[in-house]
């Protein structure tokens, strides 16, 4: 195995599948299968799920809402998604713990760094809900922050595209894919990997990022085994 402990970041939108909104349970189950497979290989798996399929603070602000209030709503959306993923994993018999940055005792544990690490050591899949617990941040920042806190070897950012391109491949057919990039190259070329707060956190803490296509069966396992999939930023 190329990695002992990983942090997998899934966007909220990835849970929609082909729907326009909300959660497609078949999609969530597919992800759960992929996660279970790597967990069974002994990889310690922590996950951060976004909330964009339900609510985004920034979009709500544009329609007149108070930004902080809207961001808290966005954080609650990530907890809903996290519960869906937890449910899917448990359906497959995977032990999980959902740790939330905002206390919700009836449905999940509060986030405690040492407890998160203990769960990982015991082979449980840990899902971090409610982002960082702070407005004006994103779940990419939560992914970077938690990965650093738990000393993950890498952040795996599962997306719909199979890596980082010179331009948006869904809009520009001439865009070409990078296999490797340094943090400096990403700054210089002004590429969009994660938001800048998240990206800088990874850079300053020497935490590699791999952007890859999570929707392709077996990709997660291939990555874990050390295959060159997606784009590595190091
Ligand atoms: N959010 C926040 N602080 C955090 C993480 C998330 O305020 O630490 C809010 C923010 O409003 C964001 C929403 O939760 O728009 C959903 O998260 P995000 O947009 O990162 O989800 P994704 O794009 O990955 O689905």
From TrEMBL:
Indicate how activity is controlled.
Inhibited by UTP.
Q: Which coarse location class applies to the principal site listed for this UniProt protein?
A: cytoplasm
The answer, when asked if Kinase is one of the entry's keywords, is yes
GO MF terms listed in the record are: ATP binding; UMP kinase activity
**GO cellular component terms given for this protein:** cytoplasm
What UniProt keywords are attached to this protein's entry? ATP-binding, Cytoplasm, Kinase, Nucleotide-binding, Pyrimidine biosynthesis, Transferase
**Enzyme Commission code:** 2.7.4.22
Question: So, what pathway does this thing act in?
Answer: Pyrimidine metabolism; CTP biosynthesis via de novo pathway; UDP from UMP (UMPK route): step 1/1
Q: What is this protein called?
A: Uridylate kinase
Q: Which organism is it from?
A: Pedobacter cryophilus
